[in-house]
Specification:
10 strands; 40% helix; alpha/beta; 12 helices; 6-stranded parallel β-sheet; 274 residues
């Protein structure tokens, strides 16, 4: 992916097989394509949070590639507007295909409490954030809010914060050691992910930027209280939820997140004493 050789190899293969249409499902672009093409661009994240090479790639390859495409797809109205403004391509030429949500069939026994017990967790007695250490995911703010929540609760009976990060990824956020109460799972399989989404006291997602934001919607569909940043893509993806099912907080205000964690803790206090 994004190898310089693909700029030569992909056109060569397309020409050899006499391709009728080429679809790039990401921002991977070509200078030359021997057949018509379409491209799916999920977001323009790298323009705000990417490295200089990726920003250059967007300008020199992606922009002309989507402007000359037969069809451009994206995953939200937010991304449609953003891509249109950046590329000067009319929004009417950018179609929206929302991200699909796949459920694990719980009747098959793939999603039960035993899957979270493996991690030493109890039903509705932990916070869960399914994310990665990239800057726009804003996990550092969440950890800061969580540590302050521990101070304010001032009791050993705190809800652990469960992250699907490795210790190396966690340390890359600027922490020398993993604080007490933070549980690092690393990569989890699909069934375990669903169990964590389903049985969490709350799902937390403080992103500064998203093209769509699928994990909060997945959590909400399992009936899990969901706390997200108040950015436009989240409000779009979660627009059909009722009051009380989702809480929108500023991704720049850790105090708001601390207060919400404390509020959830008080609601779950009886369970913690069991």
């Amino acid at each position: 992916f994004l190898s310089s050789m693909e700029l030569l190899e992909i056109p060569k293969v397309l020409k050899k097989i006499n391709a009728y249409l080429y679809h790039s499902p990401s921002f991977s672009s070509l200078f030359y394509c021997p057949c018509p093409w379409m491209v799916t661009v999920h977001d323009l994240n790298h323009l705000s949070f990417g490295s200089f090479p990726k920003k250059t790639y967007y300008q020199l390859l992606l922009k002309p590639f989507i402007r000359r495409a037969e069809k451009v797809l994206t995953v939200s109205k937010f991304s449609q507007s953003e891509i249109s403004n950046w590329s000067k391509l009319p929004a009417s030429k950018i179609d929206i295909a929302y991200n699909a949500i796949t459920h694990v069939n719980q009747k098959d026994g793939q999603c039960d409490e035993e899957l979270i017990q493996v991690f030493g967790l109890k039903k509705e007695q932990f916070f869960f954030a399914l994310s990665n250490p990239k800057p726009h995911k804003n996990i550092k703010l969440l950890i800061k809010a969580y540590l302050e929540y521990q101070k304010q609760i001032n009791t050993p009976l705190v809800l652990p914060l469960v992250l699907n990060l490795t210790e190396k990824e966690f340390n890359s956020l600027g922490f020398e050691k993993v604080p007490e109460g933070v549980v690092l799972l690393g990569k989890v399989n699909e069934a375990s992910k669903v169990a964590l989404l389903k049985f969490a006291s709350a799902f937390l997602f403080p992103s500064l930027y998203e093209g769509f934001g699928r994990p909060p919607l997945e959590a909400a569909l399992y009936g899990t209280p969901t706390v997200v940043s108040d950015i436009l893509p989240h409000k779009e993806a979660l627009s059909e939820l009722q009051d009380g099912e989702v809480k929108f907080l500023s991704p720049l205000n850790s105090i708001e997140w601390t207060n919400e964690l404390c509020s959830i803790h008080k609601q779950k206090k009886r369970l913690l004493l069991q």
